[in-house]
Amino acid sequence: MTSERLYTKPTSVQEALQTAREYKNDFAFIAGGTDALVNKYQGNVDYNCMIDITGLHELKQVSVSGNDLSIGALVRLDDLGKFGMITDRFPALVQAAGEVASPMLRKSATLGGNVLCENRCSYYNQSEFWREAVGYCLKCEGDICIATGGKKACFSKFVSDTAPVLIAANARLEVHDTDGVRIIPLEAIYTGDGIKPRNLSPTSLVTRIVLPLTTEYQIIFRKLRPREAVDFTSLTTAVSLDKAGLVRIVVGGVDPKPVVIDGKKGEDKDALVKKALSKCRVVDNDYYSRNYRRDMMQLFLKESLDQMW
Ligand SMILES: Cc1cc2nc3c(=O)[nH]c(=O)nc-3n(C[C@H](O)[C@H](O)[C@H](O)COP(=O)(O)OP(=O)(O)OC[C@H]3O[C@@H](n4cnc5c(N)ncnc54)[C@H](O)[C@@H]3O)c2cc1C
Ligand code: SF4
What we know:
The chain is α+β, with helices and mostly antiparallel strands. The protein has helices at residues 13-23, 36-41, 84-89, 91-97, 103-106, 111-115, 128-134, 162-168, 269-279, 290-308; strands spanning 6-8, 27-30, 49-52, 62-65, 68-72, 172-177, 180-185, 205-212, 217-224, 235-242, 246-252, 259-264. Bound molecules: flavin-adenine dinucleotide (FAD) and iron/sulfur cluster.
């Protein structure tokens, strides 16, 4: 590993992986940069090398191959609605992307960057000065979780808004790494540990998000945030129903990972909502209180299920 500062813009996946190997844990892939650069300049992460992947044009394609819809990791959130196949088959994905951040940010932010954006917490996503004054927590070299008043685990929130919809539609990720290429279910990359929320190796490059076209999904997306125009989520829900009557509930913003509950149409709705509530480890690390977010989660899920059957 070298400590020299570097900005590089590879033109192939192999070149990007080669540089990633050289810089190991001291680099970041930069797609839209709307999460990675903010975290760097706020002092939450540091690295010497920026690998700007926006020159990897094959990651900007949307195509249909066999029974799959393939969306390149670099497709911008603002552009998802320009593809007929996405708007026709997955309108909730376009809706979720359209509720990320603000109009200007969505012109740079990518779908790949969104599913990989960093977890957040109101005690951690602050300036260095603020964190030093309050005291450091587990996520920044302290020894307790401040949000929970001293627990030894981190509950930073999972905040991607597109991931719940993608998981509700059984999306998979194509990941290139030093040991080759693999396709994995999207939900499998999230660990539930707020300190290290994803289990991908640092050199993993996500190239495509793959959605199945073999079944049709009805998906209802809801998001709670203080200001409609710019804020991160306080609660995101996506509920899907497929042609075979399978129901999937995915909840973001209330646990270090997206919480997933599977059921069937006709099942007791209150029992499904209760199951989702019991799995979410909501703590007071958001603009809204823990109790308010739990109440809103019940409301969002109940209304979504009522709308569906
Ligand atoms: C004011 C503000 C409000 C925001 N509001 C929201 C919100 O409401 N909802 C929300 O979901 N997000 C929000 N965000 C976060 C961010 O803008 C989005 O998540 C955005 O989609 C990130 O995409 P990006 O392309 O900019 O990712 P980047 O910042 O480029 O990257 C994000 C992370 O993913 C990694 N990465 C990116 N692409 C790849 C790849 N192909 N392979 C491997 N690693 C990769 C990067 O190294 C980095 O760790 C907000 C950000 C700001 C500044
Ligand atoms: S949940 Fe606790 S440990 Fe995690 S970032 Fe917040 S205060 Fe720190």
